[in-house]
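Bumping my old thread because nobody answered last time. Still need a sequence for this structure:
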């Protein structure tokens, strides 16, 4: 900012107060922006996990219909996979809940198998992907084999 100096000349530059205000704003941005990005990244990670799980289930249904044979998907608390594919491990902190299918106490992996049949039907299941703070409920309709994802809910502490 230009100022008139004694003697009539102009002085260019910023005052100390102007510099301190700019530095304060910059330091606040440096602190706050990464926090909002990490929160946003965590939410995007959850949405990506839901999308990947739904895609795996839909692919299994399509393969059952196209191949005219039963297709199976294994679901564990922290991973899932379709038979003949690699196991997909969830991101750290995420897990799959299956409230309508309790785990077999004798099975240490707590694996639940979901079957899709050649006529498009499936073993219905209710499940949710959660990180302890947010819960993404979904279900596989037994009659149509289609996957329905409900709106995410906040988990009560």
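Sorry it took so long. Here it is:
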């Amino acid at each position: 900012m230009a100022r008139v100096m004694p003697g009539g000349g102009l002085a260019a530059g910023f005052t100390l107060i102007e510099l301190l205000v700019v530095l304060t704003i910059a330091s606040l941005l440096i602190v706050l922006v990464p926090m909002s990005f990490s929160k946003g990244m965590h939410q995007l990670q959850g949405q990506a996990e839901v999308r990947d799980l739904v895609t795996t289930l839909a692919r299994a249904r399509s393969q059952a219909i196209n191949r005219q044979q039963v297709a199976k998907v294994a679901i564990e608390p922290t991973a899932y996979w379709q038979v003949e594919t690699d196991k997909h491990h969830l991101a750290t902190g995420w897990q799959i809940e299956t409230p309508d299918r309790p785990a077999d106490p004798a099975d240490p992996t707590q694996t639940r198998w979901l079957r899709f049949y050649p006529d498009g039907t499936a073993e219905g299941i209710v499940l949710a992907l959660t990180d302890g703070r947010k819960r993404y409920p979904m279900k596989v309709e037994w009659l149509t084999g289609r996957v329905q994802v409900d709106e995410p809910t906040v988990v009560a502490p």
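The first strand starts at residue 3 and ends at 4. Let me know if any region looks off to you.
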